[in-house]
Structure formats: structure tokens, C-alpha cells
Amino acid sequence: MSDTLYLITLFPLVGFLVNGLLGRWISERQSGLIASLAVLGSLLVSAQLLLGLLARPAEDRLFVQLLFAWIPVGDLNIDVMYRFDPLTAVMTLVITGVGLLIHIYSLGYMRGDPGIRRYYAFLNLFTFMMLNLVLADNLVLLFMGWEGVGLCSYLLIGFWFADEAKARAGLKAFIVNRIGDAGFIIAMVLLFHQFGTLSMSEMAGKAEGALVGPNFFTIVTLLLLVGAIGKSAQIPLFVWLPDAMAGPTPVSALIHAATMVTAGVYLIVRNSLLFSLAPTTMATVAAIGVLTAFLAATIAMTQTDIKKVLAYSTISQLGYMFMAVGVGAFSAGIFHLMTHAFFKALLFLGAGSVIHGLDGEQELGKMGGLKHRMPGTHWTMLIGVLAISGIPGLSGFFSKDEILWGAFIWHDGVNWIWLLGIMTAGLTAFYMFRLYFLVFHGPARWPGDTQPHESPSVMTIPLTLLAYLAILGGYVGIPEALGGINRFHHFLAPVVISYHTAIAAAPNTRPLELLLMAVSTVVSLGGVYYAYRIYRVQPALAEQLARRLRPLYGLSRNRYYVDEFYQAVVVRPFQKLSGLCWNWFDVRAIDGLVNASARSIARLSGVVRQLQSGLIQHYASLILLGVIFIMLYITMG
Amino acid sequence: MVVPLHHIIAISGLLFTIGVVGVLFRRSAIIVFMSVEIMLNAVNLAFVAFSRYHGSVDGQVFVFFIMTLAAAEVAVGLAIIIALYRNLRTADLSEIHELKH
Amino acid sequence: MNAADILSTLPELVLTVTALGLLLLEVMGKPPRARFVWVALGGVGLALGLEFAVPSEGQFYAGMISVDLFTRFFNVLFLTTAAGSLLISVPYLRRTLEERGEYYALTLFATVGMMFMAKAHDLTITFLGLELLSVSLYILVAFYRNRVRSNEAGLKYLLLGAFSTGFFLFGIALIYGSTGTTHYDGIRLAIGSGEQLSMALTVTGFGLLIIGFAFKVALVPFHMYAPDVYEGAPTPITAFVSTGPKVAGFAAFLKVIATAFAFTTQHWWGILWILAAITMTVGNITALRQDNLKRMLAFSGVAHAGYLAIAIMVGSADSAFALLFYLAAYAITTLGAFGIVSLIEGEDESGLDMDSYRGLARRSPYLAGVFALIMLSLAGFPPTAGFLGKFFIFSAAIDEGYTWLVIIAVVNSLISVYYYLRPVVAMYMQEPADESAVAVPAFIVPVLLLVVLVALGLGLFPMSLVKNSIAAAGSLF
Asked: Looking at the 3D structure of chain B, how many domains does it have?
């Protein structure tokens, strides 16, 4: 069974090599087909392995395959080993499943692009690297995947390089990620120094009861967290993700929503044992997560570019996952990671379909009324919107609720993390429905010469499949409070540390859990309602008022005041706050900081270059300076 | 009269410094070359002095090697300066800075 | 001198005879010059074979040189570098109509110099090896007599090299004065037993010695010549200059420290700490804004010297092994990088800027692939050999407690990725100016294969090199 593990990564690698090296001998169509088949192969192998896992007893669900002994000498012992456990199973299936649909979708979306072979080559390379990231048993291999996905992301953002802004967006994504990677590398070297191994399973075995300084785990996990924050676009390193939307939309769906950006969450869950030994880090993770979730959600409310809304929404949802793992609800974090991959990929691809149908238009202000023009896109996207809003019955509801429950019991009751979390849920429903109404309802605002059209079936079929997943994906984890057995949680249980098993299992919490579910549902519905009032009804209401001002005066007027009140007390301040966050926090503070540091390094580079005057005697005097320094050091020391 | 070791070393150091200053401040490539030679000869002086002090010939042998090297360097150096002079019509180091930044 | 002495330097003797023969052939005017390279390569091959066929071990020539696994490791590396540089040179020399016997002869002489630097067990031999290498390189850098830039590069290299040699020699004089010997073991004995004039004098001498090595391996602030020389020299020579002296310099430096000055670490480790930190930072930051590939790679070489200086400073068996591994990976990949640069380079030294690499992936996918691989290896992406080298050095440094220096190095290596990826982006993400494929002469192909073998092969299956490096480093400690 376990000797087929390597096939999972082999297929995309072959796909990359074929498309990359033999590109000139294959047609555009074949190129897409080869790439898609490669991912399909990985998907089938992963699925077969998952069945193999399920056939085993819970504590024995692990396949390992030693690919080769990389460096087997003395105390330096690094093996290249793949590890397929429940956590890996979830990740590989998400990557290959969603990845396959996105590959197929690209057949339509990228049709006719001159660089199509390169596009597919990089997409397959990305899949290969991402699979390595999640299959790796040791940190070096994981790091290879980690760097590899970053590289592919960089190259794919810059895919349409003609645009200077896009090239710069890729660069910013890259620089911010490198800051995170610094933390990763240092943590890796420190761990290796401490445990003499880089295998994460061996490390976990040695971590408990290890004789280390009191702060060792805190330092190491904080360093890993820096890496995770960069990759998963959390405060304060989130600025790159909205800019990364410059790439083709399927790339945004695959890399910047479903897979790569979740690598940070995966890293934390994979090393949950180390993190659980560092309570300070855990609290930091939770705080960063919930603040990111809330802040990004307020920003998403006022964005007018459809992909920017989705980008901030992704940041916000990633914050949710961080919050989950921070409060120790590791399996809930992964659960949300999975459902989010489904509905966010769906939303991105839907947005791509809209953009495709409107000949590249991305402004919400120039959409509207597309419901009947693009029925397939409309219905599937509606499902995605419902799912992300946490409407009961769809996947997002289950995973979001489990996270909120985890946050609630984190400090045994109402706490600020939970409160912010639930407010974010309301905001999420609000801005997603705002997007939905602005795109599909109301008057058409696109210019007269545009003829919006439904996308070809090669694009709508993946949308439909993703829509099914967005509905059904949550049913693997029906919480016990709703009479389910939370299969997902139990499936992951052997791999992740769980803080709260004892509390969660206690029977008397059930009413409380149900109450909280009701609360969050009401909050979400409230968000939907206000989005409906403001972006759907109000224009119509205004017309009604103009026609029948007298008869319905009282009622209309009252309703009007409610809206006004809401507008003045809730929406306006939020819009202000959001604008403020956007302006100050994002653009000025963070963006400014990143740009300023990049600029100052570039400027420094220019200054140092000027020192290189070309004159021999300047060089000689620098040598003399070095001599004086060395002589001083030796006489002083 | 036996000259004490540290006197000779002091002279050697002085010579060496003169050489360094010459390299740094003279503009003609040829003079800079001669300054380098002064540095090398300062080293030779130190070697001979130490050799005598220790009563071993190792240092004096080393001096021969240094002299050989100096000759080789001058041969190559002059050839390069001539080639450069042919192309640029100058041997002024402050005018030779096409390669920079 | 006896037969064992001769046998212990047989590879060097073979190379010397070959080089002299080439000079003679050039004077006689026959056979045709196109065959000279085969003579040179034959000499290198024979030397390489003798390295294994006639192995020796121990000290020879009255202790002036020592031969062991360490020297064999480096001899193999030097000879491979020399062969690679000869192969890269051929198409370039023929294109510019400058193929002459002395070019090959000088390359071989320089190689002999490097080999003696590693084999030296006495500062006399270290000095002679260093100068044999340097003088040959001065000539090679200025080989194109009619190019002003080549002349200027040669003059800069020569004047600054001679200047730093002055300090180097003064250092040897002080060490000799203090300890009464120039023999590595003798120096260590004198320091260990306290039979020296004064520790201060010895350490001052060693401080001056550092300058000579720091110049050869281009540590800041002794590096200023490097970018100018690399840019002005003919590209195949740049390939040689950026690898050979650096490897030889580090080999001799490591050997001197490990065998002669092991007891003095506390007096100077801070110097190397600071030099390493400055070197990495200045090298990487300056490289960011270079558009000329040769200059960019020159500053990249400076930065790599900084990483390597960490390994020298740490001074443990682990760090020595890491140094050897890193040097091998660095030398071969850099050689390949300049080899490819020399192919893209057009007439009159044009085609060296970043724009000339636009769309190379479409024009010549394999060439672009190899170049991208080299860049990724130099940047330290896993699973390349460059990554492993960095990993070994960093973990050896962490083991000895130099955490902050490692943090500086990590941040630096992250900055460096930016400029290493610039050509990659140009090759893969930008449109070519013309669609014609770049001609790859048959001479370059083995070099490119070797590069792939080292960068990727040794990244994936590093064991052979790891074992050899550990054994080689082990014979020093």
C-alpha cells in the first residue's frame, strides 16, 4: 500500500517536465490535457490511499515510504520520507481534487493564451511542490515544498508580465514571503541543533520531556509562526495577497485561496505538539488570527474590485483558521481549511467566469443584473456565498461553528476572541451578499457594447462540482451536538493534539453548543438581511417611495428610518473604520513599511555601488582600512 | 657593534609604511609599482634580521623567493602598463576607471 | 629529494611539463593551434588519473608539503575546475581569434599554483603557490591586449594583489620572527609550548596573513577589485578567477588555521565574525542593483565568500566538512554560470545585461533550464547542492553557538534570492527580442552536464560528496 506514495508527486512532476521541456512539440490542447491528467493521477492515488487508511484501525492509520536515505552519516541523518496520515490525506485530496477542477477550468479560461504551455508547466510544478509540502516527513523536504510553492506563485502572478504593476505585485508577494521564510529557516536550524533530527515525527517523540531551556519551544514556535504568517497572509504580513490577485484568476483560486496560503495553517497543525508546549505562542496565534479575520472582513466590505473582495475574504477566513489552531481546536482549523478550499475556489472561479463573461471587467460598479445572463455561474456562486456566510446546511456552517465553539470554550465562556469571531461571521455574510447582489442583481451597469455571456461548459462543470462540494463538504464533520459523530474530528484525532476533548465530550454542554449555533446563525442571517436591505431593496424602495409616497407613508418612513439608522450607526462607522483600516493600516503602515524597506535597501545598494569608484587607489585605501581594523582588533583584544 | 633586532624591525616597518603611502598617493602607475617594491624590500629586511636573530637560514631563503616574485611581478606589470598606455595614452591611475560601480 | 617526494607531486609535475610543452609548441608554430586544447586537457586528465593511480600520504620534501585526503579532495576540484575552464575557453578564444598556446599554459600554471596552496605545509610553499596562481592570473586577465577593459582589469588585479601580498609577506616575516620557523607544525609547536618571542607578535603576523587570504577570496573590504576584474576579464577567465583562487584561498586558509594556528582562535575569531557579516551584507546588497551579469555574479561571489568565512571562523570538524562541500558546489555551479554567460555574450562584450536573457526559455529551453538551476543552487533553494552547503554551514555554526551570525546569514541569503531570480524571471517570463536559438558548442556540453550533476545530482544524492568531504576534513583535525 505505502509503496505507491511516490506516485502522488511523480505524476505532476512528469507533467511539469513534459510541458516544460517538450512544450514546442505538443499542442495547446494536449498541454492542458497532460497537465490535468497528471493531477488526476495524483488524485486517484491519494483517494486509493485514503481508502487504505480508513480500512485500518484509528491508531494505525499511517503509511510511510522511505524514498531514499538522503544523508545517512553519523549524527547527520536526513531521510527523504513521505508520510501519509489522516492530516496528509485531507491535504492531498484538497490539493489534487480542487487542483484538478482548476486545471480543467483553465482549459477554458486560458484558451488562446500564447504562454499556455508555460502556464500549465508552472501549475503542475506548483502542484508537485505543494504535495511535497504536505507529504514531507522532514522539515527540509517540507521547506523545499514551501520555497517551491512560493517560487511558482511568484512566477504565476507575473504570468501576464506585460503589465508593470503585475510584475511589481509578484515582487511584493515574494519579498513579504521571504521575511516569513527567514523565521522558518532559523527555526529549522535550531530544531536540528536541539534534536539532531529534522524528521517531524521523531522530533515530536523527543519534544515532550526534552531537556531544553524554558523558552526554547516558545522561540522556535514563534519563528515557525513568522513563516506561517508570511505564507498565510496574516497581520502584519498580509499585504501581498490582495496584490497577488494580478495573476490569472484560476491561479488565484488554486494558490491564493485553496492551497498555498493555507500552508501556514498546515505547518502549525503538523507541529501541533511543539505548539502545544508553548502556550504563549498559541495565544499569539489566536490573537493574530482573530484580529486578521476581523480587520480583513471590515476591509472587504468597501472593496469595489471583485477579486479584491475575495482576496480580503480569504485573508479573513485564514485568520479564522489561525484562530482555530490558536485556541487549540486544530482539527477544526483543518476542517475549515478544507471547506474553505471548496467554497473559496468556487467563488474565485465564479468570479473568473464573471470576469471572462464581461471581457475582463473586475469592478463591481460595472456589473449587476447578470443573474439571467449567466445562470450557471449565478447559481453556483450563490451556493458559494451561502456556504461562506455560514448558513446552516452548507459546509461553511459546520466548520465555522466548530471554530467558534472552540474559541468559546477556550476560556470557558464569553471571551474577546469568540466575540470578535462571531462579529466577523456577521460581517462575512454581509460583504459576501453585497458582492452577490452587486454582481447578479439590480440594474445592469456594464457598458452597452459588452455582451455578457455564460462561460463554456469546460468552465461551468468545475463550478458545479465545486458547488456540490461546498454543500456536502461539511457533512463529514457534523458536530455531536447536532446528533452527528464528527467523523472528521475523530479521523484527525490521532495526528493532532487536542486541548478540549474532555470538555467537548461532556454531555451537559450540548444545550450551550446549540445556543451558540443559533446565535451565530442569527448573526449571519442578520448580515445577509442588511446586505439585502442596502444593496437590493433600497434602490427599489426609493422608487416605491417616489410613486406611493402618501399611502404607505408611515410604514415606509419607519422602515426608511431603520435603514437610515443602520446606515448611520452601523454601516457608516464601519465603512469609515474599514476605509481607515484600508488607508492607514494597509496602505500607509504595512504597505509603506514593505515598500520603504525595499526602497531603502535598493537605495543602499545604489550608495554602495557608488563606493565602487573604479579608482585603484580608493580600493587600496579600503584595503588599508581593513588592515587597520584587523590590527586594532588584535592589539585591543 | 651589533645592531639590536628591534631597530632593524623598526626600519623595516618604516620602509613598509613609506611603500604603503606611495601606493596610496602617487598617481603614476610606475611609481606605485616602485612603492610596492619598497614594501617587499621592507619585508626582505625583516626576514634577514629575523633570520640572523634565530640563527637559521630559512628567512634568507625566503628572501630569494620574494626577490624572484618581485621580478616576475614587475615583468608582468610593466607589460600590462605598456599595453594600457598603447590603448589609453596614459599611465595615470586617476584616469583609469572605466570599470566601476 | 627522493623518489617518494617526486611521486607525491606527480600530478603537479605532469601539469608543469604539459604547460612548458605548450609554450614550446606555440613557439615552434606547430601543430595547429586547434590541437593545443587537447594537449592541455590531456595533461589535466593525466594528472587527475595519477591523483588516484599513485596515491601518497604523509609529509614530503623535508616536510614542506603534506599529502592526504584533504589535498586529494582539492586537487580533484582544482583539476575539474581547470578542465571546465579550458572547455569554456575554446569557443570564446576561437570566436575572438585569440587562441594561443600560452593561454592554456598559463591556465595550467595557475592550477599548479592552486594545487601547491592546498599541499603546502610550510608558509614558503603557501606563498609560492599563491604567487604562481596570482601572476598567471594577472596575465590571463589582461590577455586581450587590445581591450582597454581587459588591460585595466589586469592592472587593478596586479597592483592590488601585489599590495595585499606585501601585507601577507610581512605577516609571514613576523610569524617567522616570533616562532623561528615557517613550518606549519613548527609554528603550532612554538605556540603550544610557548617558545616564541611573543604571542602578540605571532598573532599580529597571523592578522596580516588573513589579509592575503581575504584578498584572494574577496572578503569585504578587500574585495573591491573583484567586480572590476571579473567584468573586465575575458568571460572564460572570469569563470576561472571566480572559482579557482577562491577555492584555493579557502583551502590554504583552512589548512593554516587548522594545523598551525589552532591554539590562537580566541585572538582573532571576532575579526572573521565581523568580516563575514560585512562581506555577506555588502555583497548581496550591491548585487541587487547590478544589470551586468558578470558584475552581479562577482558580487554574488563576494557574498558567498562571506558564508564560507563563517565556516572558517567556526573552525570545527563539522564546519570544515561544510566548507569543503560548499566550495565544491559553489565552484562548479559558478563555473557553469560564467560558461553560459560566455555563450550569451555577443561580439564586443555586448549581451551581458539582464535584457539579453529575456525569453531565453523559449529560445533555448535546455540552456535556460540549466541556468535557472544554477541560480536556484546559488540562491540555496532545496533540493539543490547550494541549499545543502548553506544548511551544513549554518548548522555547524549554530552548534558552536554563533546564532546571531547565522541569523544575519539567513537574512542575507533571503535577500540574495531577489537578484538570483532576476535572470530566471527574464528567461521565463519575458518575451525574447529575437527567436533564434543560442548555439551551444560541443565543448560546453560536458561542463553543463557536470553542472546539472553537481547542482541537482548532489542535491538529491549528496552522499558521495558528503563522505569525501568528511574524510578530507577529517585528515586536518
From this structure: 1
